[in-house]
Amino acid sequence: MSELPAPQRLAPYAVALHAAVIRAGDELADGRLVVLHDPDGQAMWEGDTRCVAYVQATIDFEIASDPLLPSVGWSWLLEALEASNAEHRAAGGTVTRTTSERFGALSDHPHAADVEIRASWSPLGDLAPHLVAFGELLCSAAGLPPTPPGVVAMPAGRRRRKAAADR
């Protein structure tokens, strides 16, 4: 995860983060989470803080034609928020699927499909569960199973140090 330049005009205070799901050198999904804060609040937000997420993932071409894909994509967000105990209100967003067929010099990969989730919600309380939910949303879009309740992944750096110490 890395910090990105935050939007300047949406709220007096903002932070933006980028994250990607990478497996065996392939990027399965990538996204941004922007947290906006306006001490005066905004009526549409129903509060003074807003989380804005953008997630994009490559999907199988056949899955892109499934009429339920947008509903399933939206459920990934709601399930991630619930599983992370990320209390919120005023969730809204879109799920878009795109397909493309390549020709000529690009025909090595003739079909491609992506799902894109753009969502925002107003967090209640601590922001930490919302960051966890964003990670879960990324993993769901990448096709990875959800993390079981109570299980915390060990940071990769810690495993490498332990493996080096065991040698």
Structure description:
By secondary structure, the protein is of the alpha+beta class. It contains 4 helices and 6 strands; from the N terminus they run ββββααββαα. Strand 1 (2-4) and strand 2 (13-23) form a beta hairpin. Helix 2 runs antiparallel to helix 3.
Quick overview of this protein structure:
The protein has helices at residues 61-64, 69-83, 128-141, 156-166, and strands at 2-4, 13-23, 26-42, 47-58, 88-101, 111-123. The chain has 167 residues and is of the alpha+beta class.
Question: What order do the helices and strands come in, and which of them pair?
Answer:
Blueprint (H helix, E strand, L loop, with lengths): L1 E3 L8 E11 L2 E17 L4 E12 L2 H4 L4 H15 L4 E14 L9 E13 L4 H14 L14 H11 L1
Antiparallel strand pairs: 1-2, 2-3, 3-4, 4-6, 5-6
Helix pairs in contact: 2-3
Keywords for this entry:
6-stranded antiparallel β-sheet, 26% helix, alpha+beta, globular, 167 residues
Helix content: 25-40%
Topology, number of strands: 6
**Mean pLDDT over the full residue set:** 88
Largest sheet: 6 strands, antiparallel
Radius of gyration: 18 Å
- Strands side by side in the biggest sheet: 1-2-3-4-6-5
Give the class from helix and strand content and strand pairing: alpha+beta
**Shape designation:** globular
Strand percentage: 35-45%
Q: What is the ordering of alpha helices and beta strands?
A: EEEEHHEEHH
**Alpha carbon gap, first and last residue:** 29 Å
Identify the quaternary structure here.
single chain
Count of alpha and pi helical runs:
4
Runs with pLDDT <50, length 5+?
A: 156-167
